[in-house]
Design goal:
Elements lengths: L1 E7 L15 H4 L3 H8 L2 E6 L11 H8 L4 H4 L3 H8 L9 E10 L5 E3 L9 H6 L3 E3 L2 E7 L4 E7 L29 H22 L2 H8 L7 E9 L6 H5 L3 E4 L3 H9 L3 E2 L13 H11 L5 E6 L1 H7 L3 H14 L9 E6 L3 E3 L4 E3 L3 E6 L11 H4 L5 E4 L3 H10 L1
Parallel strand pairs: 1-11, 1-12, 2-16, 9-10, 9-11
Antiparallel strand pairs: 2-15, 3-4, 3-7, 3-8, 5-6, 6-7, 12-15, 13-14
Helix pairs in contact: 5-10, 12-13
This protein binds zinc ion.
Zinc ion binds next to loops.
C-alpha cells in the first residue's frame, strides 16, 4: 500500500470555554475528517520530548514520527533550518538560526526582528566571505528577518550557547562553551569575533543608515541560536525501503525531510501560513502518489494560530483543511494517516504535553465516529508512543 502521512502542526488542544468547552478540532465542522475517522481506526499519540525540555518541540517530534529516535539522530535545530533554506551542509559544519535584530550602543536589544525587515539581501552580501582563524562563515537569507549561518572549518563544536536572549531591553548574550572542550571554547570564541565584526559592518551599512533616516530600525545585529552540527542521517529509503516525497511550506520541515532524503514535491503558494495553498497541497499529493511509496504532507498554521491564542482561527483553519481534503478521499490501495506532531494549547499560547489524536484510514475501522481528542481516546489504536508510530503504520500498510 501507498502511505500518505499528514502532520497538522500543533493539532491537539484542550477545551476552550468560548467554544462551549470543546477543543478547536472538536468544535470545527469537519465532515471529511470525520468520514476518515469513522471508516478508519483512531487513537492517541504521546509526543516525544527530551527530559531537559519542558514541552515537546516540532523538530524532535517529527524525527520521532518518522521513527528516528531523537536521542540518536537529533542534530540541533540550526541544522534543519539551514537545510530548509537549501544551504548545503558538510560533515562537521556547525549551523545556526539567525534573526536580524536591532541593538543600541550598549548592545541592548531594541527589537529582536529589526522592525520585521524583509529586504536583507544587501546586508547579507556585505557579510559574505568572512573567515576567522581558518573558519568560514556562510550566511543565507531565509524569510523576512531570518537567515541561516554555517561555520565551516576544523575542530568545531555545536555545544555552544545562544546569543539571542529572547527578550528586549537586555544585552545580547555572549556565546559561551556549553562543555569544557577545546572545540566548544574555540567555536564560541570565533563566533563571538564574527558577531562583533558583523555588528560593525551592519552599523556602517548604507541600508541601515537609510533606514535610520526614514525612522526605521536598523538591522545591526545577528541574533543567533539553535546551534547544531551536521552529520549524515540514514535515509528514509535505506531505513524503510520506501521512496518518500514531501510537501511543506516551513523551512524546518523541509530541512528535516531533506536530511532524511525525501524528495520535495513543490507546490506554489505553500508558505506555512494560514494563507497557504491547501488546495494545491492536497492536489499535489493525489498527483504524485503513484511516483512515491510514501508522501509526507506538513501543515503549519494550526500551531502558530494556537501560539497566538487564536482558538477561533485554529478552528477555522482546521475546517479549511477539511474542505480541501477531498482529492485524496478515494485513492485506492492507500493508507492515510492524519495526526499532529504535538499539541499546542490555545489557552497557554504554547506547545503542551497533551497526547495528539490520530486517525488511520485504509486498514479497517473501529467505533470512533468523529476526529477529535476525546473521540480518539476510545479508538482501537489505543495510546501509542510517537516512536512506535512508524512501525505501526508499516505493519498496517503490509496487510
Ligand atoms: Zn510543531
Amino acid at each position: 500500500m501507498k502511505i500518505i502521512l499528514i502532520v497538522i502542526d500543533g493539532l491537539g488542544d484542550t477545551p476552550i470555554p468560548q467554544l462551549k468547552n470543546k477543543t478547536p478540532l472538536e468544535a470545527a465542522n469537519t465532515p471529511n475528517l470525520d468520514f476518515l475517522a469513522k471508516n478508519g481506526i483512531c487513537g492517541q499519540v504521546g509526543p516525544f520530548w527530551f527530559k531537559w525540555q519542558k514541552y515537546p518541540r516540532s523538530d524532535t517530534c517529527h524525527l520521532a514520527i518518522f521513527g528516528y529516535n531523537p536521542k540518536v539522530y537529533y542534530l540541533g535545530r540550526g541544522v534543519y533550518e539551514v537545510r530548509g533554506i537549501n544551504m548545503k551542509l558538510k560533515k562537521g559544519d556547525v549551523a545556526l538560526r539567525v534573526n536580524f535584530g536591532t541593538v543600541d550602543k550598549n548592545l541592548r536589544i531594541i527589537d529582536r526582528r529589526a522592525g520585521r525587515i524583509e529586504k536583507t539581501q544587501s546586508l547579507i552580501k556585505s557579510l559574505q566571505g568572512i573567515e576567522i582563524e581558518r573558519v568560514k562563515f556562510l550566511i543565507k537569507k531565509s524569510y523576512g528577518h531570518r537567515a541561516g549561518l554555517i561555520l565551516r572549518g576544523r575542530d568545531l563544536s555545536a555545544k555552544i550557547s545562544d546569543g539571542d536572549p529572547h527578550r528586549i531591553g537586555v544585552k545580547v548574550k555572549k556565546i559561551l562553551a556549553r562543555e569544557k572542550t577545546k572545540e566548544a571554547e574555540f567555536t564560541a570564541k570565533i563566533l563571538n569575533k564574527f558577531l562583533e565584526r558583523a555588528h560593525q559592518i551592519l552599523e556602517n551599512h548604507p541600508l541601515n543608515k537609510k533606514r535610520i533616516k526614514k525612522g526605521l530600525l536598523p538591522a545591526n545585529y545577528l541574533l543567533v541560536r539553535g546551534a547544531g552540527m551536521f552529520k549524515e542521517t540514514i535515509s528514509f529509503k535505506k531505513k524503510y525501503g520506501l521512496k518518500a516525497g514531501f510537501i511543506a511550506g516551513g523551512a524546518l520541515y523541509k530541512g528535516i525531510a531533506r536530511i532524511l532524503g525525501m524528495k520535495e514535491i513543490k507546490v506554489k503558494g505553500a508558505n506555512g501560513l494560514p494563507t497557504t495553498n491547501l488546495k494545491g497541497k492536497f492536489l499535489a499529493v493525489k498527483k504524485n502518489i503513484q511516483k512515491f511509496d510514501f508522501i509526507f504532507l506538513h501543515i503549519k498554521a494550526t500551531d502558530n494560530l494556537a501560539e497566538d491564542g487564536n482558538f477561533q482561527g485554529k478552528k477555522d483553519f482546521i475546517e479549511k483543511i477539511d474542505k480541501n481534503l477531498k482529492p485524496i478521499l478515494n485513492l485506492k490501495n492507500t493508507l492515510i494517516v492524519i495526526t499532529g506532531d504535538h499539541s499546542t494549547c490555545c489557552t497557554l499560547k504554547r506547545h503542551c504535553r497533551e497526547p495528539v489524536p490520530i486517525l488511520i484510514y485504509g486498514a479497517g475501522s473501529d467505533s470512533v465516529k468523529q476526529f477529535s481528542e476525546k473521540a480518539c481516546q476510545r479508538g482501537k489504536l489505543g495510546k501509542i508512543k510517537q516512536l512506535d508510530l512508524m512501525p505501526k503504520i508499516l505493519k498496517l500498510a503490509e496487510n
